[in-house]
Amino acid sequence: MRAPILPAAFFALLGPVAVAQVNPFVLYPQDPERQGLTCTSFVGRPDWNRAAEAHVSFRSDVLRGIGDANGTTRLFGVYHWLADEKLSTSETYSLVVRSTDALGQPSTGQAGELLRINGLSSPPSTSTARGTWIMYDGFGLQGGLWLLQGNGLWSVGVDLPANPLWPATDGHSLFRADLLNANTGATYGENHRAGAPNPTWALPATAAPFSTPWTYVLGPFVTTPNLHLGGIDPTSNRLGAPGASFGMNGSYPDVGGTPRSDGLAVRVTDNLAPAGFVFLAWGGGFGTPYYDSQYAPNLIGFCHLGAPGPNIRTVGLFQLQNGVREVTLRAPGSIPPALVGSTIVFQGVVLDPVLWLGNWTNAQAARF
Fold this sequence. Notes:
This protein is mostly beta strands and 368 residues long. It has one helix at residues 248-251, and strands at 3-4, 10-14, 23-24, 42-44, 46-49, 52-57, 63-64, 68-69, 72-75, 77-84, 92-99, 113-121, 131-138, 145-147, 154-160, 172-178, 200-204, 210-212, 214-216, 218-222, 226-232, 263-269, 277-283, 299-300, 312-319, 324-330, 343-352, 357-360, 363-367.
């Protein structure tokens, strides 16, 4: 179920979130803040034109520590790209934060809601053309939404009302990158290995939840720096442009060697410390979350690689340029096929050279 991607006409709506003071955490092949998106074949809704919530969740076996404020989670809003078939008709939607299980399935009903904000809408326009709104919606909560699920047992979603006019004449949808096994005919999109799980969920208004085989330009606003892993597959044109694919290909690279042997890259972004210094490390899996009280209060967050020791190895020290730094970890063809079935976890610290304050990034696993 899909609609063709819209023309590249972009508009920005600044809500109560100051963009330079937050980081949108978006699991997508490209960086929507800093790159032109060439990987999006289609825009779509979670359950065609029926009422449903579109959710992005973060499995605890892949991602931990997003928005970590010393063991808890702080979320400040939701960032998403809204595709509108007719800009002159303002579209309504709601924002939802839900609890999830360890595999990312959102809890249903009012009992599963951690936050709901109804009555939001896209900006007014006199244009009757198709176009895109880039939505910055803040929660308006002092200090953000505090959650106790520090390992990421929550999801953020956009609740779309039913719209029988979509996609023929009106209605809105979300930018997405289809998985290889989505069977939608998408030329561009995600480039994961076989066996990767669906990363997003649909919560229909009148039916049971189901997972969906694509990623959305959708995610929470946090004040922590972001770390994303990217797969490098020079034999694929799924991105529609050169570079590493930082969506599902990062967590699920293919290193089997027949026919692919992906490389691996890491990207760190931080709008709060755009010239910050980045210290990167890795370990052979997630460890017991470790809080380094020696450096408190100058180091925010938990290390999800565990306590310092021989099982944690350093990658290096780098500096952000305009809030971003990409580093190639291993070139294509250089990761041994013997690693198939193993997991490596990466995490970093961003040091603000002005405030002299360090902040752990999230941790992300590459599951070979």
